[in-house]
Each structure stands twice: as C-alpha cells, then as structure tokens.
Amino acid sequence: MLAMVVLASAAPAASRTDVIRILDSCLTGTFHDMYAASPAARRLVDRLERSDLVLHVVSKPFDRRPFTGTMTFVVRAGGRRFLRIAIDARLPPDRRAAALAHELQHALEVADDTTVVDHASFATLYRRIGNESGGDSAANCFETVAALRTGARVLAEFRA
What we know:
The chain is an alpha/beta fold. The chain is built from five helices and seven strands. The protein has helices at residues 25-37, 39-48, 93-111, 119-129, 145-159; strands at residues 5-6, 20-22, 53-59, 69-77, 80-87, 131-132, 142-143. Strands 1-2-3-5-4 form a five-stranded mixed beta sheet. The chain is globular, with a radius of gyration of 15 Å.
C-alpha cells in the first residue's frame, strides 16, 4: 500500500504545498535530499509549486534501459491538471535524484503550456518540443533537451 506524503516542509512556506505529492515513501528522502543539495532542483520545484498541476510521484522498476523514469498525463479536473511520475527506486541515490529532476522538468514543460488538457494535447506538445526515444514510435516516448540538461545539472549539484 502507498502512503501519501505531502511535502509541506520541502518548499518555502509562502508557496503552495499541494502540487508535488510523493506517494511512495522510498522517494520521500530522495526528494528532500535533491531539494537540499541542488539549487537547480529548488528553482524547478518552486516554479512547479506555483502551477496548476498536481504531480503524483511513485516508484516503479524499469527493466527496459535507458528508462529511469516516466511521466504521463492523467486527467484535468477541478481546474487542475494531474500528471503521474514514476521513478525507478532501485537507482542509487544520486541517479534517483537526477531522474526525479528530469521528470519534474517534463512536468514544468506541461505547466508552461496551458493547451495541454488531455492525452491528445499532451502528445501534441511532446511531438512539437521533443524527440522520439525508446526506439518504438508506437510507444509514444519522447525526450527533451531541457529535461536531459536538468537531470545532468541536478546530478552534478547532488554529487558536489
């Protein structure tokens, strides 16, 4: 069973605390460590906390490399857009933090595009800003330069 942890202490007191919801206890420490160690991650989280998104973050093993995480559109309801982020919790802490930051950057890409309101507009966004990844065009997997850069930056800051 998943335990919901709303990370009120992870973000500045003046910001909303209902956007990023870590639903798997093994990722709670990763989130806090990433936020503490990385100025880039803090900026990313702070921007997301001011968005209309709700992000549910769970762990999921990925047997197909190079996947370390994924993000999917769930639904738009009550003036909020819900996304699901899955991170491979088997990764070492530094790589787990980088994967989480990478997926949070993807969430920011959605937050910045108010036309994303359903699965079709989500796919349209990533066809426009991303490149197909995963080697399976039918799988609709996309990657962006911004997410790759964010993951690398947070990894470096986390290790410093």
